[in-house]
Model the fold of this input.
Amino acid sequence: MSKVIRLGTRDSELALWQANTVKDQLQALGHTVKLVPVKSTGDLILDKPLYELGITGVFTKTLDVAMINGDIDIAVHSMKDVPTALPQGIVKAAVLKRGNYMDIMAFKDNEEFLGARDAVIATGSLRRQAQWLNRYPTHTVVDLRGNVNSRLEKLYNNEWNGAIFAAAGLERIGLEPENTIGLTWMLPAPAQGAIMVVAMEDNEEVREACAQLNHEETDTCVTLERQFLRELEGGCSAPIGALSYINKENIVTLKGVLLNVDGSKKLETELTAPLGKHQNLGVDCAKTILARGGRRLMTELASAGTEVNIFSTKKLTPQQQLSLNISVNADSDDFIKINFNRISPIVLKKEHKNVVFTSKNAVEAVLASRDVSELNFENIYCVGRKTRRFIKNKFGKITHYENNAKDLANHLVEFIDGTEVTYFHGNLSLEELPVILEENNITVNAIEAYRTKLSGKSIPESVKGIMFFSPSNVESYLQENSADKIAYCIGETTAKAAREHFTEVKVAKIPTVESVIELVNADYED
Done:
């Protein structure tokens, strides 16, 4: 073509390298190309993390405007910086053959910090931060902004142990430090290592020229990765990684990951399909993530900083947190702390015909004092499904269980073999069970196996409902907070304690954390 192709690019060293690569390839095909450097918002604002700038495509927006205004004909980007939805009128013109897609860790002295409890790692990427903290949860991650050159300089001028970079960026401008580690376990950003050329949709002549640069295999893989990203509706504000590749047998693989910012929650997926039947891999991988709690996690990421409306007095696991409905913005903490007592070896060496546990804590306390192989318990009775599961797992047997202490006491009164029980309990355990047994001439040898310490704290005024899992939870909560909330209780014993203070008390159908979550979800339907 006779027309000079005006190629817009950011003016950083890496962006210019990429632009010159496209320029050289177009000129090799006989086209005339002129570079037009343009400053982007992402280059101008260096004192904030990318996710705080409030826009996606922070490195591409200025070039988009220049193209729409007719100042340039094509733009060249690191494809991972390009939003999945291009502005109206702008289309993908080519994807060059992918470079190194890996992330690498650059460090100053040695690698010993990888095995240390405390280390400081620098990165401006939420995705890298989340994956690093998932693997090294005790490390500290600090923000790192600027172009590749300035970021390397900051690493050497600060007391950091290391900093994370895209391998392709360092390799392309010949800046890879001597001390680096390839982070093979870290999934890259979708389309990392790929260079994208965009043009105006109505500029057919320019698009035809650029189409000759397109690398089909790279285009196939990064399209799937960006499809995965688009389906999750994530951008710079969500820690999302994806990698697709095609093997020698023409099987297409797509791996995807979604995390929360501190890395404590992680959802992964991997799917394969033959080339030619791969078109929906990105969507399918995203749907797998969403079905396993990703929808909830994306909502948490979007609603970070919004008011908490539900509080759990027991620390929820990441999976339990994800099972809450999207309209629930929950926080949690342990309102009681458990300390196991040392139980006399003389007591535990004895034969015990009938043993009673009313909590999992009591079982754990006994096993902390003596190995299960050294215990001689003939009949084991307990309260609660969780306690029953734990006992069966550890002892391989259980005689009987009930959902509450009163029902277990009544069962023992009618069916016990003998007239004596050994009761392992906590310092705050209710007296209901031993009272009923002793009233029916059953001797109770009570052994305090653990102590419960109340450790409540003040919760936000925005909270409308509290999740309780024991009477001690209720007592601990009330030390610092009011009872003008809805009490969601794990069972009748806990509910009885709550009703003494709370006007509205709801009880789970079965005594599990998941059942309490179902109670909350019923009030906060999506």
In short: The two ends are 56 Å apart (CA to CA). The first helix runs from residue 13 to 28. Residues 41-58 have pLDDT under 50 and may be disordered.
